[in-house]
Amino acid sequence: METLLAEERQEKRLTPCADSFFFMSPYRSFSTSGCFARLDCPAIDGANSHGHLQTSLREAFENAKKHGIEKPVVVGAIPFDPRQPSALFIPESWQPFSRAQRQDDARQTAVAKPLNIAARKAIPEQDKFMEMVAHAAAATAQPDIDKVVLSRLIDIETQMPIDLDGLLNRLISQNPTSYNFHVPLPDGSSLVGASPELLLRKSGKNFSSLPLAGSARRDRENIPRDCEIGTQLLHSKKDRHEHGLVTQAMRDVLQPHSQTLTLSDTPELITTPTLWHLATPIYGQVKDPQDNALSLACLLHPTPALSGFPHDVARKLIAELEPFDRELFGGIVGWCDAEGNGEWVVTIRCARVAANQVRLFAGAGIVPASSPESEWRETGVKLSTMLHVFGLN
Q: Residues in domain Chorismate-utilising enzyme C-terminal (predicted)?
């Protein structure tokens, strides 16, 4: 009997409920139960402590405490366009777990289960995407815009509904160092992903960020060649230019809100299972004690790594060129507690899953030196992170 109960507890720990928010990071890993209150107001004014989102959040936290939730947190996702409704909620409870133990559990239970595909479609197809890149590259050679991020999708229909628990185990097993997440959405679908990019982490007065821009496909079967690829990326003028646009913009946004702010003039290399990335750690302390993790994340979102620079011009070009609405793709996922601590990551290397429908997303930064064919290949490598999770190529 004790063995059966132990197995039941283990099974519950390994398989979060479909309506549970799930977040894994080096800082804090936890899952949630239930939904006390939803916040769907847009995050366009989320950086303003007196704006609608922050006012609604404070009221929701106070109401949660009155109903016996001692340490309320808000969790969920904010779309790429913060003028659209948010997908945030305050759970009835949350439970921390060991990231290392969860990784071990996932490795033991992850089984590759290729999907039986009924239909698969690229949006847009390769020729159209390359036309988009050529148009954007020419536009960024003009004085009014320096960079624009273009993305593409893959829509997949399977013969049977997706096994979400098995999917999460494979995602964690294949991407153990990423920010792995599951967000239950109001329409019953799920947003799942393995983001490599920290937008904003806040603990007390301290905050940090790790923006990524500039990437190259790894060659893990040839270690010397793999290292050479990383070195080439670190010295690439095109990628260093793209990365510099992102970090300078973030510096300019954060500086007025910071008591201290530190970031290097030279990026460093980080890796995922499929890519090398240029990254620049950012560290600071908030100037205004009313600033919380969510307000700082909204201040930064979307960064030029997901939209372009300047943002307003890039957003218009994205709307003109991309044949779809990104919705939650390219947005942010994370949490913030009532004390202002929290963590938000960029919604990339991700998928939206609804029964037997899957939509994947990937984007690439376009600058004057961008090659349409190279950007198609780069987005293909980024898509492969989630394709491999689904047992696909």
A: 126-382
Using a 10 angstrom Cβ sphere, with 0-12 exposed, 13-18 middle and 19 or more buried, the burial of residue 91 is: buried
| 238 catalytically annotated | no
Euclidean distance between CA atoms 228 and 225, whole angstroms: 5
- Which residue in 1, 120, 85, 67 sits closest to 327, CA to CA? 85
Residue of 197, 327, 343, 378 with catalytic role: 197
Q: Which residues pair with 90 in a beta bridge?
A: 37
Q: Would you say 126 and 108 are in contact if contact means Cβ atoms under 8 Å apart?
A: no
Q: Is 341 left (phi over 0), alpha (psi -120 to 50) or beta?
A: beta
Mean pLDDT of all residues in 315-344: 97
Residue 100 buriedness (CB in 10 A; 0-12 / 13-18 / 19+): exposed
- pLDDT number for residue 116: 85
- Each residue of 221-243: pLDDT tens digit? 999 999 999 999 999 999 999 99
Mean pLDDT throughout 283-307?
95
Q: Which of 8, 65, 147, 237 is catalytic?
A: 147
Count Cβ atoms below 10 Å from residue 338 Cβ, excluding itself: 20
Residue type, 219: D
Task: Reply yes or no on whether 197 is catalytic.
Answer: yes
What is the rounded CA–CA span in Å between residue 131 and residue 140? 14
pLDDT higher than threshold 50 for residue 102: yes
Report the helix count and the strand count for the chain, using DSSP H and E.
10, 22
Residue type, 32: T
CB 180 within 8 A of CB 327: no
Q: How far apart are CA 295 and CA 72, in angstroms?
A: 17
Report DSSP state, residue 194. E
**Structural contact between residues 154 and 320, judged by C-beta atoms closer than 8 angstroms:** no
Nearest to 330 by CA among 296, 271, 379, 293: 379
Q: Using 50, 70 and 90 to split pLDDT, how confident is the model at 195? A: very high
pTM: 0.92
Whether 320 and 136 have beta carbons less than 8 Å apart is answered as no
Residue 234, CA distances (Å) to 45, 191, 203, 345 in order: 36, 32, 31, 23
Burial class (CB in 10 A: 0-12, 13-18, 19+), 169: buried
Count of beta carbons in the 10 Å neighbourhood of residue 7: 10
- What integer pLDDT is reported at residue 17 of this predicted model? 55
> How high is the pLDDT of residue 391?
86
